[in-house]
Amino acid sequence: SQTIHQWPATLVQPVGSPLSLECTVEGTSNPNLYWYRQAAGRGLQLLFYSVGIGQISSEVPQNLSASRPQDRQFILSSKKLLLSDSGFYLCAWTPQGQTQYFGPGTRLLVL
Amino acid sequence: GEDVEQSLFLSVREGDSSVINCTYTDSSSTYLYWYKQEPGAGLQLLTYIFSNMDMKQDQRLTVLLNKKDKHLSLRIADTQTGDSAIYFCAENTGFQKLVFGTGTRLLVSP
Lengths: 111, 110
Description:
The complex is a heterodimer of chains A (111) and B (110).
Chain A: E1 3-7, E2 10-13, E3 19-26, E4 32-38, E5 44-52, E6 55-58, E7 65-70, E8 73-78, E9 87-94, E10 101-102, E11 106-110
Parallel strand pairs in A: 2-11
Antiparallel strand pairs in A: 1-3, 3-8, 4-5, 4-9, 5-6, 7-8, 9-10, 9-11
Chain B: E1 5-6, E2 9-13, E3 18-23, E4 31-37, E5 43-50, E6 55-58, E7 61-66, E8 71-76, E9 85-92, E10 98-100, E11 104-109
Parallel strand pairs in B: 2-11
Antiparallel strand pairs in B: 1-3, 3-8, 4-5, 4-9, 6-7, 7-8, 9-10, 9-11
């Protein structure tokens, strides 16, 4: 069966520090991968998605970037965090479109 | 662009039925979904409906789809305190992406 992992689960970082969040999927190959951000009490905002290795689509201009160095690995990064980057970051995967399955999320607090 | 709209909050008593409503944007959406998010957790797929269906029932869950009005609803029968969560509807508009609603917070009181 397929599983999706995210780490870390929780992260507290100072403003201006770098960021690296990791998402990996097991039990499937060539998935579509997604990064979402959920601000407190708000809905989901799609940040990036990838349909293959090295292929990244950005949905909104921002302080973040994404990379997909391996088929089942998706990384969310920042060179310098802002206060507004705080939120709950969710990774999701789908077997080539249609239903998306979500990871457990990473809670990021920027101070 | 247009948003997928949901009411923000719903409060029911344990044992009652809950109905969560959603208005989506794209009449050509092929699949429509309901996800549940418990506090501090990711989203859990509850159910989905294909656009050529009007209704789908899965145990305590009933999904109704009105394509003419672009209206989707989720009915939870015999609501339990464990059903307290945020519920998101989502539509598949193609292009490998889902568009999510704003979420409805369901509070079930004993």
